[in-house]
Design a protein that fits this description.
The complex is a heterotrimer of chains A (276), B (319) and C (366).
Chain A: E1 9-22, E2 28-43, E3 48-52, H1 59-66, E4 74-79, E5 82-83, H2 89-96, E6 99-102, H3 116-126, H4 135-146, H5 163-175, E7 181-185, H6 193-210, E8 213-218, H7 221-227, E9 230-235, E10 238-244, H8 245-250, H9 255-263
Parallel strand pairs in A: 3-8, 3-9, 6-7, 7-8
Antiparallel strand pairs in A: 1-2, 1-4, 4-5, 9-10
Chain B: H1 2-29, H2 35-40, H3 46-56, H4 62-76, H5 89-124, H6 129-143, H7 146-157, H8 180-213, H9 217-224, H10 229-256, H11 260-265, H12 271-280, H13 284-312
Chain C: E1 13-24, E2 27-39, E3 44-48, H1 55-62, E4 72-79, E5 82-83, H2 89-95, E6 100-103, H3 107-110, H4 117-126, H5 133-146, H6 152-155, H7 165-176, E7 183-187, H8 195-212, E8 215-220, H9 223-229, E9 232-237, E10 240-246, H10 247-252, H11 257-265, E11 315-317, E12 320-325, H12 331-342, H13 347-354
Parallel strand pairs in C: 3-8, 3-9, 6-7, 7-8
Antiparallel strand pairs in C: 1-2, 1-4, 4-5, 9-10, 10-12, 11-12
Helix pairs in contact in C: 4-5, 4-7, 5-7, 7-8, 12-13
The chains are: A alpha/beta (276), B mainly alpha (319), C alpha/beta (366).
Chain lengths: 276, 319, 366
């Protein structure tokens, strides 16, 4: 059992290459796209770590590597004291209960043919939990209430909900198994401005109440500023700066970070920034 | 790109070898008897049959026969001799190919023009009377069996038996070089019959494809640029055409292998009718020749179509 | 109604009481519900709103691009004295891409994928100018250089997919500027782009505006973009304009509760992390059955009962004739509410402090 002071997630030298192949009869590898290139960081228990960067910087790939949705080319991933880099089969499945992901697009990340109740209850079914009659439904409804949805809408379909509500469904689903780690990959980028704050506040609240550890990925610096304790800036597969939130925004060290901060529209004129 | 073409060609040759092998196995396995018996004609005496067997190389072990068989086909383009007419299969096919090509190409032109034209107009005037009539007509054309359509045409317009004696009837095909006008008029009805179903399918596909592309953002941009509407439509058609071109190539290849029904109904001496007669009389070498020919057309068409796609859509790259 | 403190010349574009309706299976969609604004030469108007606010439909209608979708349009759009709403199609076509140009959000899908970039630019030129292909091609290369694409003579023969996102948007801008338009409408031009590229594109638009003396209408959901680019800002909600003001005033002294809600619900780079965002409760309304009276009243913490009956008109603010707001609350009351909010009150607290009864509370959260 790991001590509570140890970070929840330790990533060392994480690398992911996607090979480029060529050849007439057999394909041989002539190079690789280095999506994630020797990345190392920790995520402390109870904190929100932000990963910010532009398209193609590797932030989403990093998240998928930690979730073991992709296999790393090199490096180690430690979760709750265990090395999960090469785990497979039922051992991996067990670990999967402890980490969950929320996705960017609320319109495509929910199966349109399933009711909301069954979407939220699916994690229980997959892991063989709550087999008692009606238990799953009760738990799903409880989760709906937690994220601010009406539990009576249990039997509705995703298309009957708005974008913001669908994102809440995604959050509820990710909380079903009481994971230790929640990875949110651009969770508000596809939402309207006035709804983003609702979902962001929800995440902050849940983190406080449930003691979640959160890894928050975004390209939007203002959202990262609002949500995260520490921030890692990524570029071309590498982390160029990893700092405390305050530090990063007041005294960014890396020129790329500075360039990002200066590029935010409106920041020079009025200091106001809107969420995307 | 070159690498891709070479790779496809290699695979193509391999596919043809596989087809040849299948034919070989089929003809040795089918219970229609000993090929030597068939060649021996009526009242075969055992001694004659034996002699023919040796001549045909049927006494050699199977793998050796197969190897000889492949060599003959691929290196010498020798498909054997028809059991029926003793003529070399190669020359038979060479005779019958021009009418089939005339038929296929003419039908191809007709069906592109009709299919695209009707499809485009239908897409632009969706739910109008024209659209409903065109799509309804398309449904009829697709459902109508070719032989029925062919016979109806003959019944109506054929110069010998038709109600309105407009066009030459069945059996009137002549080669292009001997009498161009007769060649042309004798093919009009077969072309229409062959093209009808395909044009109908194309019209429906074009309608769907164009409807979709006209909804794309780049159409809005084209209008915002102030382009006249016909140029805006051209933008849409250009994008809508791609999937249809590939389909066209494959269908044309199938026709080149012989449009059996139409050739039979109109009595056109093409490869299709040849293969039909060969099947009826179990004339294996001829069947073998026509099957390999058809396979070759399809394989080549597949390759051509895939390569042309890379030119039609610059985003497609074969590395 | 005048906006901006420019010289007292006639505005280049004046929209008067524009209403646009679409017919749908479920009923008429009132996308634009009585919108009026002006744009002057050389100035930039920002139209800010969320999805469903009607901001894009407004601008598409200006160019007549909603005619193909069966829109029912009423009101007037005056451009250099002509009413674009009633203008016949071929005359309107002569204006599109010529005197008024538009660029769109996603440059990858807005450029034809199967034609070369140069060809698309040449088309834009030859649609309105009688020049040879060779001359048009020269112009295309010149335009690509103007928008900052390096090696334009080679790039002109590339296909859109060979350009990066930022370059594609530059190419779209080049295409829009081909005939030196008097008005450029930019619909979310940077939303699909990375933040560093975004800054470059906005700077480019500003520079070109200065060089060509164009008027620019920039449509965005991003208040930061509006702050960066616009001289005047119009805030739209549910098909109506709720507030217009100069950019400085809008951020310093906003008058409409929706604007307050927006400003208080978006994260700021310079904010304290501990401070909570205050989201606007509820969801944007349906445009088929918009709320009666003030469209914002179901989500407005300060709404009073009769706000559900009366349509607020866009009226000038007493001490600043260039700022307009469509709100039924009295100016003094509003200002005190804003003061209270600024002092740290929640909307409920501010209401109490001002002595107003709480009207219809907001519904379930989104």
């Amino acid at each position: 059992m790991s001590s509570p002071v140890e970070p929840l997630v330790c990533v060392r030298g994480l690398t992911k290459h996607f090979p480029i192949t060529r050849g007439i009869v057999s394909q041989r590898s002539i190079g690789a796209v280095r999506a994630v290139d020797d990345v190392s960081f920790d995520i402390h228990r109870g904190e929100t770590l932000g990963i910010v960067g532009e398209t193609g910087c590797g932030k989403s790939t990093t998240a998928r590597l930690i979730m073991r949705l992709l296999d790393a080319t090199a490096g180690e991933i430690e979760f709750d004291g265990r090395d999960i880099t090469r785990l497979r089969g039922s051992a991996l499945k067990a670990v999967r209960r402890e980490m969950q992901m929320i996705f960017q697009d609320p319109y495509s990340s929910l199966n349109p043919r399933k009711t909301v109740g069954s979407i939220i209850g699916e994690p229980f079914a997959i892991h063989g939990l709550l087999r008692e009659k009606g238990e799953r439904k009760r738990e799903a409804q409880r989760l709906m209430g937690t994220v601010g949805l009406n539990p009576e809408h249990y039997n509705r379909y995703p298309h009957e909900f708005s974008g913001g509500q669908r994102q809440r469904i995604g959050v509820a689903r990710s909380l079903a198994l009481s994971p230790k780690l929640l990875i949110a990959d651009e969770p508000v980028s596809a939402l309207d401005v006035s709804i983003q704050a609702q979902v962001l506040n929800l995440l902050r609240e849940l983190q406080r109440d449930l003691g979640l550890t959160l890894m928050f990925i975004s390209h939007d610096l203002s959202v990262i500023r609002y949500m995260c304790d520490r921030v890692a800036v990524m570029r071309s597969g590498k982390i160029v700066e990893l700092q405390d939130n305050e530090q990063l925004y007041r005294e960014p060290r890396d020129p790329y970070t500075r360039q990002l901060l200066e590029s935010v529209p409106g920041v020079r004129k009025i200091g106001v920034r809107s969420a995307r | 790109m070159i690498r891709y073409i070479i790779r496809r060609l290699l695979w193509g040759v391999l596919s043809l070898i596989v087809v040849a092998a299948l034919l070989f196995i089929l003809f040795r396995v089918l219970p229609t008897g000993n090929p030597a018996l068939l060649r021996a004609g009526r009242d075969p005496k055992p001694k004659l049959v034996k002699e023919i067997e040796v001549a045909l190389g049927l006494s050699k072990p199977l793998p050796v026969q197969f190897w000889d068989y492949l060599k003959e086909i691929f290196l010498h383009l020798n498909f054997g001799y028809s059991y029926y007419s003793q003529q070399s299969v190669r020359s038979l096919i060479a005779e019958r190919l021009p009418p089939t090509i005339s038929l296929a190409l003419g039908a191809g032109v007709l069906w592109i023009v009709a299919g695209f034209g009707i499809g485009i107009v239908s897409a632009l005037r969706r739910h109008s009377l024209w659209d409903r009539a065109a799509m309804g007509g398309a449904l009829v054309a697709i459902s109508a069996p070719e032989f029925w359509l062919g016979l109806v045409f003959l019944y109506l317009f054929s110069s010998d038996i038709g109600k309105f004696k407009l066009l030459p009837g069945a059996g009137s095909y002549v080669s292009l070089s001997s009498d161009p006008w007769k060649w042309f008029t004798s093919l009009i009805m077969p072309w229409i019959v062959l093209a009808a179903g395909a044009a109908a399918i194309f019209a429906r596909l074009m309608r769907g494809s164009l409807t979709e592309t006209m909804r794309e953002d780049y159409i809005r941009t084209a209008r915002a640029k102030g382009l006249p509407e016909r140029d805006v439509v051209r933008h849409g058609v250009r994008a809508a055409v791609n999937p249809l071109v590939t389909l066209f190539g494959l269908e044309l290849a199938a026709l080149l292998g012989g449009a059996v029904i139409v050739e039979t109904v109109f009595n056109i001496p093409g490869v299709g009718r040849l293969s039909y007669q060969a099947i009826q009389s179990a004339d294996f070498p001829v069947i073998q020749g026509t099957v390999l020919l058809a396979a070759m057309f399809v394989i080549v068409a597949n390759i051509v179509v895939d390569i042309s796609y890379a030119y039609l859509d610059p985003r497609v790259r074969y590395s | 109604m005048t906006m901006g403190r420019g010289p007292d010349e006639a505005p280049l574009l004046r929209v008067e009481d524009l209403r646009v309706e679409f017919v749908s299976e479920d009923g008429a969609v009132h996308a634009v519900d009585g919108v009026s604004y002006e744009v002057r030469s050389g100035r930039t108007l920002g139209i800010v709103g969320e999805s469903g606010s009607g901001k894009t439909v407004c601008s598409l209608t200006t160019l007549g691009l909603t005619r193909h979708q069966g829109a029912r349009v009423s009101g007037r759009i005056l451009f250099e004295g002509q009413d674009l709403v009633t203008l016949p199609e071929d005359e309107l076509r002569a204006i599109r891409g010529n005197e008024i140009a538009m660029i769109f959000q996603d440059p990858l899908s807005s450029l034809h994928p199967l034609y070369r970039v140069g060809a698309q630019l040449i088309e834009a030129v030859r649609a309105h100018r009688d020049v040879s292909k060779a001359k048009a091609r020269e112009r295309a290369i010149e335009l690509l250089g103007l928008v900052g694409i390096s090696d334009p003579a080679r790039r002109v023969d590339d296909y859109p997919y060979e350009f990066s996102g930022g370059m594609r948007q530059r190419a779209m801008i080049a295409m829009a500027l081909a005939n030196e338009p008097k008005l450029l409408i930019a619909d979310e031009p940077t939303t699909a782009l990375d933040v560093t590229v975004q800054a470059q594109i906005l700077a480019l638009i500003e520079r070109l505006q200065r060089e060509l003396g164009m008027a620019v209408v920039i449509i965005t959901h991003d208040l930061g973009v509006a702050a960066e680019m616009a001289d005047e800002i119009a805030v739209m909600y549910a098909g109506r304009i709720v507030e217009t003001a100069s950019a400085e005033r809008l951020f310093a002294a906003p008058e409409h509760p929706y604007t307050w809600g927006l400003l208080r619900s978006i994260p700021r780079l310079d904010a304290q992390r501990a401070a909570d965002l205050t989201p606007i409760p509820g969801t944007p309304p349906s445009l088929i059955n918009p709320p009666s009276g003030c469209h914002f009243h179901p989500r407005c913490p300060y709404a009073q009962p009769d706000h559900a009956r009366i349509d607020p008109a866009l009226e000038p603010v007493p001490d600043d004739p260039s700022q307009f707001v469509a709100c039924l609350l009295e100016t003094q009351v509003r200002r005190r509410l804003w003061q209270q909010l600024g002092a740290g009150d929640t909307p409920e607290q501010a209401l109490a402090a001002v002595g107003l009864p709480s009207g219809d509370e907001a519904g379930a959260p989104a």
